[in-house]
Amino acid sequence: MGDGPTILHADLDAFYASVEQLLDPALRGRAIAVGGGVVLAASYEARVHGVSGGMSGWRARQLCPDLLFVGGHFSEYQRLADEVMAVLGDFTPLVQRMSIDEAFLDVSGSTHLFGAPQVIGAEIRRRVREEIGLPVSVGAARTKHLAKIASQVAKPDGLVVVDPAHELEFLHPLPVGLVWGIGPVTKQRLADRGIHTIGELAASPSESLEQFLGRALGSKVGALAANIDHRRVQASERAGSVGAQSAFGRALPTPELLREVLGHLADRVAGRLRARQRAGHTVTVRLRFPGMKSVTRSITLPAPLATTLTLTEIAEMLALRALAENADQRQITLLAISVSKLIDQPVLQLEIPIPPDTPVRPGSPAGAARWAVDHSMDAVRRKFGRGSVGYASVALSARGSVPDEFRELAEHEL
DNA sequence: TCTGGGGTCCTAGGACCC
DNA sequence: TCTGGGGTCCTAGGACCC
After folding, report:
1. Nucleotide nearest to A292 (CA to C1')
2. A164-186 confidence digits (pLDDT tens)
3. Which nucleotide lies nearest residue A247, CA to C1'?
């Protein structure tokens, strides 16, 4: 660690909503939300009414009757966020992008060129505002963890620099929820014990935050909080798993529904794997029941797979197993597939043997034929775009599933 | 009549190995 | 009147982050 506040965290404010307001001046100053059934992003004008991301649409309307829902310009989100990242890259090559709208920078080697970290932070904000038109908040501190907290404190549209000599004074009045790794559950547990601020959490001032968290919450959260700083600012790592999910309200888990939804999800997941020459050994299926209770079933295969039809069939087998073991549940609300234990798979491999209880329909292609099917589909997609062929998922589209463009914004590099 | 979708990490028990 | 100790993998669940 350096001794100055040389780690910056840049975080675009209410990103999707800010883009909509940038694209349509009539939306500026108004309470808007991107999304529909669920709020994907809310402008600050909406947030003052209590509207926040992840909230259901009807709840948001209750809180803010004037709330205006706007459709998402998903490709613009990607383009503008990439432009912002390019600005960050002008100040240091050490940029670690954490998501579409957020990144860490290590400017310890840049101060002789651009000035002190607070100068760099101000310049970043000015350029992003003037050249791209978006508000971005920046935090600067000695560590990633502190820089991230600082950027949250800086919001909206601000800059906060944490002097290394006054870190504890900065932290102590802040709510515990700002600590990385403390979410709603832990926050409530702490509140039950009368702990609301980081200062209250840090019983002894001489003790490090991580040590205290480890003692107070079990090693888990302490380890998580410490983890963020044990890794230096560096290029983002490749994803360790690939998944897709679909929520569809309540539905009877009929074989037809399972096949249709899992087929669509497997198509997305396996297609991404093949596009990046990857394959995975472990398949996990998740089902969610009314009431948000969910279960998972997984299997680790002797050979990696990236075949749509095989993934579909294994996912069906796992889903049926989960349903059989939760026979009291009549309906499901979500299905998810994830593939993990990934490997590089530069050349085609033989089809894996199918587990004995996998439902194989008569007439479905086997072995090399499955590869042929996938690769002809992949070829058509490369030529004519993703939507040109594939599962015509009536169930998914009819149930108002999120558009693929939005899904892609959240995908990690494989 | 609970809230989307893409991810990471930690824990804990059991199997299995040496 | 039973059996140590360490390590790894698999599976299921859960919290969290963006």
Report:
1. B2
2. 999 999 999 999 999 998 999 98
3. B4
Judged on CB neighbours under 10 Å (0-12, 13-18, 19+), A325 is: exposed
**Which bases of strand B have any atom within 7 Å of the beta carbon of a protein residue?**
1-11
CA–C1' span, A137 to C6, in Å? 49
Q: Are residues A302 and A359 in the same domain?
A: yes
Q: How many distinct structural domains can be found in chain A?
A: 3
A19: domain CATH number is 3.30.70.270
Residues A186 and A294 in one domain: no
Grade residue A2 by pLDDT with cuts at 50, 70 and 90: low
**Parallel, antiparallel or unpaired: strands A102-106 and A7-12:** antiparallel
Specify burial of residue A281 (Cβ count, 10 A radius: 0-12, 13-18, 19+).
middle
pLDDT in tens, A210-256: 555 554 455 555 565 666 676 678 777 889 999 999 999 899 999 99
Asked, for residue A149, whether it belongs to a domain, the answer is: yes
Whole-prediction pTM: 0.88
CA separation for the pair A246, A307 (Å, rounded): 20
How distant is C1' of B5 from CA of A251, in Å?
Answer: 19
Cβ atoms of A13 and A155 within 8 Å: the answer is yes
Report residue A31 CA to chain centroid gap.
24
Write out the catalytic residue numbers of A: 102
d(CA A56, CA A215): 36
State which protein residues have CB closer than 7 Å to strand B. A 37-38, 40, 53-54, 56, 59, 218-220, 223-224, 227, 239-247, 249-250, 268, 272, 290-292, 333-334, 336, 338, 340, 401-402, 406-407, 410-412, 414
| Measured CA A41 to C1' B4 distance, in angstroms | 12
Same domain? A270 vs A137: no
CA at A354, C1' at C18: how many angstroms apart?
36
For A317, the domain range is 241-410
